[in-house]
Structures are given as C-alpha cells and as structure tokens.
# Entry
Amino acid sequence: MTVVTSSLSEDQEKKLLSLFGHVRLHLLYKASVHGFTAEAFHDRCDIQGPTLVAAYNKAGFVFGAYTSKDFAQSEEAVTDEEAFLYSIGAGGQRPLRVACNNGQSAFTDEPTGPNFGALVFLPEDKPEIQSNPGTGFNFQPAEMHGTDLALTEFEVYRVEGLGGLLTKPWRNVQCTAERKQQLMKTIQDYKPDIRAVSQAKVLLVGPVGAGKSSFFNSINSAFRGHMTSQAISGTAGKSVTTQFRTFSIKAGKSGKTLPLVLCDTMGLEDNAESGLDMEDLVNIYKGHVQDRYQFSSSAPLQADAPGYKKHVNLNDMIHCVVYVIDTCKVSVLSDKMLEKLAAIRKKTNQLGIPQILLMTKVDEACPLVAEDLKNVYHSIYIQRKAQELSASLGIPLTCVLPVKNYSQELDLDLSTDVLLFSAVQQMLNYADSFFENQVVDEQEVDDQAELYTSGKIGT
# Structure
C-alpha cells in the first residue's frame, strides 16, 4: 500500500484554504502515483462530493478548479454556481479566483479528464492541459498558468466542510489537572474481577499507519512523565510492526507496573493476502501467540510451530479489542478495508470480546482541534466522523473515542493526557465486561494459573 502525500507546500495549502470557509482538503488522487489517465481519475474521484483539482507546472503555478457537484460520468453539462477556477503563482500574491460566467455550465461530466471548458485537464490521457479562456470562465493565460500547458503533477482533493464548533459539546470531558490525576489513580488501582487474572490484556487492531504503536508510546509517555518510544512506529506504507508484542506500562521509571497490557500487532492492509491474517488474529485472541512472535507472510501460525502457546488460561487471552482508525482517512476507507474490519468485528463478537474504536490524529483532521485540543468534543467535523465510523463499522457511538497521540512534541500536554487516560479507563471498563461474562470456577482458575506459571504443564 503506497503512502500518497500532497505536493502542496504549506503556503500553497493556506492560500487554497483561504478561498473557502472552514474546510480541510483530503487527497484522493495523485497522477504521478495513480496515472495521468481519465480512468485513474474517475476511479478515485467519482461520487466524492465537492472536489478541487490542482495542476502543477514547471513555471511554478498551482492552478485548477473547484466544483461542489459530483463527477459521475453522466455526459451532461453541469451547472454549479459555487464552481470557480483558481491559480497560485510562484510569487507571494493572493490567489486568483475566477467565477463561472452567468448562465453557463461549470464543467462537462464526461468519462475524460476534468473538463471545465476554459481548462481541460489530461486531454487524451496526456500530462497537460488545454486552455480556452472565455469558455465558461474568463481569465488571462499568463495569470492562470503562465502559458505553460505541460503538467509536472496533477492532484484531486475532496473538500470537506468542518462545520465550525458546537455551542454545547457532544461529550463532556474535563481537561483539568485534577481530572488527569483522578484518571491516573483509577487506572493504577484497577483490579480485574477474576482473582486469577492480574492484568487486563488489550489488543490494538487497525490499518497500517493508523497509530497503534504510537498510542502505546503515548500512554507510556504520559505515565512515565516524559517522551518514550518503546514500540517501533513510523509512516511507512507497509506495517512497521511485524511481530506480536505485549507491552507493560510503569507509573514512572521505577514505578509500579500498571494492571494493563497493551498488545500490538501487524497493521491491516487492503490486500487479502497482506497484513494481519484472520487465523493469526484468532490465535492472539485465544492467547496462543507468544510475545515477539514473528508473523509469516506465507501462512498463519500453526499449533505445532514455534511461537504457539498450547496451554493457556484467562491471563493469556485478549480481554478487550481496540480498533485504531486515522480520523483523516475515515471517509476514504476502501471497501476492502471495511469488509476486513467487518469480518474481524464479526469474529470478535462471536468470541464475546468487547470492542472500542479509537479515532487518532484528530488534530490533523480538524484545524479547529489543532488550535486547541479542548475543541475536540465541540468540533462538528470530529462528531460527524465519529458518527460515520459508528455507522460504517456497526460500533455504538459510545464506543468511539477521539484521541491524539504524541508525535512531534517534546513535552507532555494536559489535554492530550486526559483524552489518552479516558480511553484507557474505557478499555478497563470493557475488560470488566469480558470478565463478568466468564463462567468460571475461581478455584479451578487459580489452580490452572498456578500450574501454568510454575511450568508444570507444557507450553
């Protein structure tokens, strides 16, 4: 899975955003990656709502068009009063914005590259434009594109309205020092309902790059009181995590180990043959996979293979599953990924394991949250994305929790810690639900745990 990034500079993106109200741009299509073809464009950009096309040339111009209507290959002329052409020159001037001529269509919705009349992109699948000033839009070619019609890059973004801030938050979370200390104490004092179980075991599952490893590092940092990086994290297109890892957390460098184990595993990928295998996942759920087991791309772990733990008890099993989803990518989760997540959720339900969903990178998804993390539950955009995830994955909204991981910070932040600790508290609450559903004889479990830990039964 290739990581596709925008070619816009920070200054260019700010200038583009100045043409709108409260919006964010989400990259759908990049010609240098997906191909300078009409087919590649339509595969990724049809029925995506409001979109902005961005063309780049050697003269240093970024120019293109915005429409609030869908591309749908209807072969009809589309009227859109909100449509406009724009250009950002190589200098520091304000962006050029050109409205559509009164009474004329904004674009022709054909199975070709975007055709806005005055600007036709990717004609005959070539990395160039056709410039026809006066056809729907009036402009001077030198101001629009510097008369350079060859393209070095071509991108399409979905324009997502942020919707501003709610007067009343959709969930009440107090980001105070007192609340942080209260949450820390609750987590440190937690005891599983079953005496034979010493720690709640929580598994993090999610697409590559969603922030599973970063979540553990962030929790560990918040409890240690400084930044840590015990779990390997990164931004690669393939899963950075290739082993099954179990991580314990200490309150301070030499402090008490928390009654919580966070388990990290390979990221999910669109391709059915790539990423975490369902059979491996079930083995993890049931406690059969040993710490540091190296996943194989050729076959799931077998019962007679090294790394398979034959004799297990409740201590080894997963007590809560946490799906980790990048908030920036909620609207562009592929059908294959949604199907994979649905299959995992179905299997997890069958095994009776409670589930929570973490929305990571909320600050990257919403500029209003980036300005102040306390806006997270006031943000209409974040609320909308939480509702979207709830509906698409069949997870109750009460189980969807926005968080921010530490990524580039050098110092801890109170609001970040409160959101992280609130998520951990919910994980422990849901682990309790798992324990309450277990029908066990306490003495039998105690005896089993003693046998297992003493090494009197095989592994």
